[in-house]
Design brief:
Strand 1, helix 1 and strand 2 form a beta-alpha-beta unit. 25% of the residues lie in helices and 20% in strands. It binds flavin-adenine dinucleotide and iron/sulfur cluster.
Length: 528
């Protein structure tokens, strides 16, 4: 048994966990332990083979909703989602945070550069964001870095008068290999593994990977509970991982403050199995997924999409009125084979055209519903993700699908393919022959396991709200009714943050790290 004592235990080393660890190490003298369930794979491990790199993903890429209908991707390795993501970088949206302030009674999170939230010098979201952007080198790519797929998407949008713009990306020295989703073999993607984690290690944070936290520990503190640490298991180090700082076996960690940053699926699962008090039945409820619907276009010529930066253009043209963005991305062959419809010879024929395919997708800002939730199943030993698209969200996705069909034909495709087995066209499939067939998208029912929508942006499952009826944690991320326990990651957003979430999550973590450093007295109470 490994027994450790520290001031702060952080569970999860992704967008939030690594950022908050580095921030605490930078601004305090606290002893910080950062634990990560997955291995510590570095650039030397990323061999650009799609199948091999499935080990970077939660449940080896097999995580999905309970009905198997929606794959819910997440990173399960040091760096979490930032190790496997596409580096698409969106600043936190002030209107969203202002709405949260009104609807969820959030406090703090000032966007004014001169604000000192909670009386902490220089604490505001603007400063946190500025730090993140600088450390991760968030910038727009040069025109020369835009690959064929993104160029076609941009052409298609513009020829229909649909505005398209460049993403910003957290990259430095990118050579355009096209494998962001399989881990960057060149350390050019500025995820937390190569930025904040390295800062944290340099400043004395102890990282223990292969370490899955099973339970948070509590003791009574008057009428409240107080978190006093956690326990779990360290797995043997997997082939290809960097060495660990603790032996495999059970581990118990005493901590004065426990910060849960395990992501929007695992954080609620951990709270659930730790029996965190939940008088208003909030844990895991109101999960949002940003359901994404892809489209592929078959062209008459070869297109080199698997090289170059995977995503460099998107469109927010329909965002204000319909709540979705069109985002240009592209799948490598295995993911493409999973997504494309058909069986046997039909599917084979589609895949034979792989080198002539272009694609992009609609990412929907979904409407929160309490019936969409994450819970923990002791029987299966996995989180259970219950999720159904609402009728209004289906209507918005139908509209998005029709616009996507039009755009992909406008970019020169001879055929458009939705990832669906629904009989939409007169030919009984979801393969469109011309833009004039876009109206057939009205027939989409989004029946589970018939039409593929996927998710990589789970959020809002342990919501912050000053009102315990609406959220599990207050604006500081402190779980209501429990001291010494903070939730800080994508789960803490009250609803969708309105865009691809990485930078907003990192900004939240930078903010909370600086706040904890500035409010150490709040956590002292004889402990910190
Ligand atoms: C394939 C993919 C592509 C994406 N592309 C983009 C993009 O381009 N732009 C963007 O903005 N967003 C993107 N995202 C989303 C973004 O990466 C995530 O929203 C973000 O990383 C979530 O941050 P987090 O800190 O909440 O959790 P994560 O980054 O998921 O980190 C949580 C960590 O906690 C660990 N953990 C879980 N349970 C335990 C436990 N019990 N004990 C110890 N450790 C545990 C996990 O292994 C994981 O490493 C993408 C995500 C994926 C999966
Ligand atoms: S495209 Fe650039 S950032 Fe992405 S994996 Fe390749 S070198 Fe790294």
């Amino acid at each position: 048994m490994t027994d450790i004592r520290c001031d702060v235990l952080i569970v999860g080393s992704g967008s939030a966990g690594a950022t908050i660890a580095a921030t605490l190490a930078e601004y305090t003298k606290l002893s910080v332990v950062l634990v990560e369930k997955g291995p510590y794979y570095g650039a030397e491990f990323f061999n650009q083979r799609e199948l091999d790199m499935m080990v970077l993903l939660a449940q080896n890429g097999g995580r999905s909703t309970v009905d198997g209908a929606i794959p819910v991707a997440g990173g399960e390795c040091v760096g979490g989602g930032t190790t496997v993501n596409y580096a698409l970088s969106f600043d936190p949206i002030p209107e969203v945070w202002n709405r949260w302030r009104r609807q969820y009674s959030l406090e703090g999170f000032s966007f004014s550069d001169s604000a000192n939230d909670y009386g902490v010098e220089g604490l505001n979201l603007a400063a946190a964001l500025r730090d993140i952007r600088k450390r991760c080198n968030v910038h727009a790519p040069a025109d020369s870095e835009v690959n064929d797929n993104n160029g076609l998407f941009m052409d298609g949008c513009r020829s229909l008068g649909v505005s398209a713009k460049k993403y910003e990306l957290n990259m430095q020295g990118c050579i355009g290999c096209g494998f962001c989703g399989q881990g960057c073999a060149y350390d050019a993607k500025r995820g937390t593994m190569v930025t904040y984690l390295q800062d944290a290690l340099r400043d004395g944070v102890r990282l223990i990977h292969h370490c899955s936290i099973d339970q948070i520990h509590f003791e009574s503190a008057g009428s409240e509970l107080r978190a006093v640490g956690a326990s779990g298991t360290i797995a043997p180090t997997k082939t290809g991982s960097r060495p660990n700082s603790a032996p495999s076996g059970p581990i118990s960690i005493d901590a004065k403050l426990v910060i849960v940053s395990a992501g929007a699926i695992e954080s609620p699962a951990l709270l659930h199995r730790s029996n965190v008090p939940d008088p208003f039945d909030r844990i895991g409820r109101g999960l949002v997924l940003h359901p994404s619907l892809p489209i592929a276009g078959v062209f008459d010529h070869e297109i080199v999409n698997y090289r170059g930066i995977t995503g460099s253009y998107y469109s927010d043209y329909f965002y204000a009125d319909h709540g979705f963005m069109l985002e240009c991305l592209f799948d490598h062959p295995i993911d493409a084979a999973i997504a494309l419809p058909g069986f046997g010879v039909d599917h084979f024929d589609l895949m034979r055209d792989y080198s002539k395919l272009a694609g992009f997708g609609a990412m929907l800002v979904d409407t929160p519903s309490d019936s969409n939730r994450v819970s923990w199943s002791a029987a299966s030993g996995t989180p259970q993700i219950a999720y159904r698209l609402s009728d209004p969200d289906k209507a918005r996705l139908r509209f998005a699908a029709a616009r996507m069909v039009e755009i992909i034909f406008a970019s020169g495709a001879r055929e458009a393919i939705l990832t669906s087995h629904e009989p939409l066209t007169p030919r009984g499939n979801a393969i469109f022959q011309s833009a004039s067939e876009a109206g057939f998208c009205e027939k989409l029912t989004f029946a589970p396991n018939e039409t593929l929508v996927s998710s990589a942006h789970a959020q809002a499952s342990v919501k912050m709200s000053e009102n315990p009826h609406l959220g599990m944690a207050n604006s500081r991320g402190e779980v209501h009714g429990v001291s010494g326990l903070i939730v800080c990651d994508s789960s803490a957003f009250p609803t969708s943050c309105g865009a691809n979430p990485m930078i907003a999550i990192m900004s939240l973590a930078r903010y909370q790290g600086r706040r904890i450093a500035g409010e150490q007295g709040r956590y002292v109470a004889g402990r910190l």
